[in-house]
């Protein structure tokens, strides 16, 4: 039996009134080691490791039978990855046909055709295409374009002085990779790639701008798309990708200025630079499946330099990741049969119902919202679709043909994925579809489908514990549920209505009041610096959506706990009142630590705040926390009542 509260992790020398995160997790933070093949440690990572081992055992038990079944596909794909001897013998040989095709690029049209081929085969395209619910008509799938083409984590890495050392390391990495691939002019090609990517990055939207769903909804005809980007041969791009023109009759362009900006680059930038870039994208896209010299080079930059990892992940772990990426639902179907109990789903159904009731109660009483907007918000809440554990139906992989060669299997899987994407464009949205696998330790809200999704693998301690009291579970998984519901009403989700349609359902005064409250939350987080990090701080505007989710999630989880019969002043257990156990459950859920290198990447690119602030900054805004621990002006977590923010 897993204890509801892990007291051994606590640091009694730290008062919860001063630092709840370190009071609850301090001893663990001081003693826990991050595994050498990881960039972080904590509750999320522990569950991910457990799921990974469970999936590994499942895969290892499957034997290829040549019968065309999903089990046969799983076994073949995994075996092709684990055939290390063949992979080492081949070296760079699998890249030669791709390099030959790139060498033949002699015009912008030929380049566009290769870019389409790269899209089909998953090799880091310049212009990405994907399908998703149409924000203007969420009952159907539409096709979207998106900016792509970079090798560093974000456009900011190409322009900000704080990332200069990473750019230098990236250039060294490019030189190393081109040399391993057999190019005598590795230094020249590397410099060309970095120069071209810097030019591409100049047209990328930044992370904050990408949060604006309205700005990214730009439906246009194929003719208008062509007119937007003169010099880019869309016909050749389509032909290279094997996409029928009829499927692109209407396209939603996510970042119009990106296409406007890169079209002249394709038309006029030296072809030799584009050929170098295309070679790099081929190497980068396949390096994880090539010989150890390529794998080691990739690790040294992307995992060691960027994330601080000390060791390469064992081959079996990388093999499991490949199988899950290609056949995730086939694996998930077997996973839930072995590791998900019906009573877990029943308990979650009850928790979700109580969280929705609590949100309804809160919205009905909001003092900053007019009745017109309130009715729209309640209507949206009533149309939320919870999905728990695993999908109602599983994906069909029957047209995916796999053999014994690893690179051939990877390319075939990527091509299969594009065909699956194209087959859905213009068709009704499949409401049973999931965008995470059951074995994934995470959860999500989908604004265009107004659904909240909780995979099986997250429904375990420290998030959900069947042996724990309600107070601890509501503080942990209850707040996770509340967080995902809250995304329906954050800065992004609030732009869509109950049907997932991009629509302004707000009265102007209410939108102004909401944005004022959100701005105050931005101010609370902006500039916070996590412990142990030299350089970088929280971007309040980038993280505001997740912070709104956390704020609403915990506050509504507390209200839901009360609706479920929770008594804040009830009988203490292990020296803690029920209210104190609720907030301890919350803090336990954020137990985690991250390498400084990985933390810098998170601060620059991730819409989530570091764990210590997700825990501590949120509770500073909740009156119930002050009451639970008797907090006053002398305590470090005190925030003046006039500065506390309550949105939902």
Automatic annotation (TrEMBL):
One of its GO terms (biological process) is protein processing. PANTHER family: FI17812P1-RELATED, ZINC METALLOPROTEASE FAMILY M13 NEPRILYSIN-RELATED. GO terms for molecular function: metal ion binding; metalloendopeptidase activity. GO terms for cellular component: plasma membrane. InterPro entries: MetalloPept_cat_dom_sf, Peptidase_M13, Peptidase_M13_C, Peptidase_M13_dom_2, Peptidase_M13_N. Residues 16-391 form the Peptidase M13 N-terminal domain. PROSITE patterns: NEPRILYSIN. Gene3D superfamilies: Collagenase (Catalytic Domain) (3.40.390.10), Neutral endopeptidase , domain2 (1.10.1380.10). Keywords: Hydrolase, Metal-binding, Metalloprotease, Protease, Zinc. This is Putative endopeptidase. Belongs to the peptidase M13 family. Pfam families: Peptidase_M13 (PF01431), Peptidase_M13_N (PF05649). It comes from the Bacteria. It comes from Tessaracoccus bendigoensis DSM 12906. Residues 442-645 form the Peptidase M13 C-terminal domain. Its cofactor is Zn(2+).
């Amino acid at each position: 039996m897993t204890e509801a509260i892990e007291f051994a992790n606590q640091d009694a020398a730290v008062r919860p009134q001063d630092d709840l995160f370190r009071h609850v997790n301090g001893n663990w933070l001081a003693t826990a080691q991050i595994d050498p093949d990881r960039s972080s440690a904590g509750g999320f990572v522990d569950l991910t490791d457990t799921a990974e081992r469970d999936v590994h055992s499942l895969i290892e038990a499957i034997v290829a039978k040549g019968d065309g079944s999903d089990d046969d596909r799983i076994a073949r794909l995994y075996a092709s990855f684990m055939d290390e001897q063949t992979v080492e013998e081949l070296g760079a040989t699998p890249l030669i046909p791709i390099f030959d095709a790139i060498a033949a690029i002699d015009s912008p049209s030929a380049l566009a055709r290769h870019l389409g081929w790269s899209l089909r085969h998953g090799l880091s395209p310049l212009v990405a295409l994907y399908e998703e619910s149409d924000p203007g008509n969420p009952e159907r799938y539409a096709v979207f374009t998106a900016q792509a083409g970079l090798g560093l984590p974000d456009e900011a890495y190409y322009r900000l002085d704080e990332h200069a050392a990473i750019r230098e390391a990236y250039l060294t990495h490019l030189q190393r990779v081109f040399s391993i691939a057999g190019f005598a002019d590795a230094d020249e090609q590397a410099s060309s790639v970095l120069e071209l990517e810097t030019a591409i990055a100049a047209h990328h939207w930044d992370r904050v701008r990408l949060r604006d769903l309205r700005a990214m909804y730009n439906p246009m005809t194929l003719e208008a798309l062509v007119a937007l980007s003169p010099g880019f041969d869309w016909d050749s791009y389509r032909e290279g990708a094997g996409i029928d023109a009829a499927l692109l009759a209407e396209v939603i362009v996510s970042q119009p200025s990106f296409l406007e900006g890169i079209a002249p680059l394709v038309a006029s930038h030296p072809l030799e630079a584009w050929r170098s870039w295309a070679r790099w994208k081929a190497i980068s896209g396949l390096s994880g499946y090539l010989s150890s010299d390529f794998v080691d080079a990739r690790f040294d930059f992307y995992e060691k330099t960027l994330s601080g990892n000390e060791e390469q992940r064992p081959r079996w772990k990388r093999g499991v990741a490949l199988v899950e990426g290609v056949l995730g639902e086939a694996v998930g179907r077997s996973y839930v049969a072995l590791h998900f109990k019906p009573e877990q789903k029943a308990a979650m159904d009850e928790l979700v119902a109580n969280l929705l009731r609590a949100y309804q109660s809160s919205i009905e009483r909001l003092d900053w919202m007019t009745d017109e907007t309130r009715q729209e918000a309640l209507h949206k809440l009533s149309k939320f679709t919870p999905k728990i554990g695993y999908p109602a139906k599983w994906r069909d992989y029957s047209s995916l043909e796999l053999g014994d060669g690893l690179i051939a299997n990877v390319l075939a899987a990527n091509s299969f994925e594009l065909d699956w994407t194209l087959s859905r464009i213009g068709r009704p949205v499949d409401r049973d579809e999931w965008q995470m696998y059951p074995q994934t330790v995470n959860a999500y809200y989908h604004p265009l489908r107004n659904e909240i999704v909780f995979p099986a693998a997250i429904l375990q301690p420290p998030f959900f514990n069947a042996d724990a009291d309600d107070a601890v579970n509501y503080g942990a998984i209850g707040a996770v549920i509340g967080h995902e519901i809250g995304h329906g009403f954050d800065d992004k989700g609030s732009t869509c209505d109950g049907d997932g349609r991009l629509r302004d359902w707000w009265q102007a005064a209410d939108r102004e009041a909401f944005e004022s409250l959100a701005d105050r939350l931005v101010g609370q987080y902006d500039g916070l610096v996590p412990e142990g990090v030299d350089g970088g701080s929280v971007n309040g505007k980038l993280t505001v959506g997740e912070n709104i989710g956390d704020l609403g999630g915990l506050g509504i989880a507390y209200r839901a706990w009360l609706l479920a019969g929770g008594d804040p002043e009830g009988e203490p257990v292990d020296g803690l009142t029920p209210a104190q156990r609720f907030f301890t459950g919350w803090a336990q859920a954020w137990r985690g630590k991250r390498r400084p290198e990985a933390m810098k990447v998170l601060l620059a690119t991730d819409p989530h705040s570091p764990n210590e602030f997700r825990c501590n900054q949120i509770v500073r805004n909740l009156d119930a926390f002050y009451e639970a621990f008797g907090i006053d002006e002398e305590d470090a977590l005190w925030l003046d009542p006039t500065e506390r923010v309550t949105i939902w």
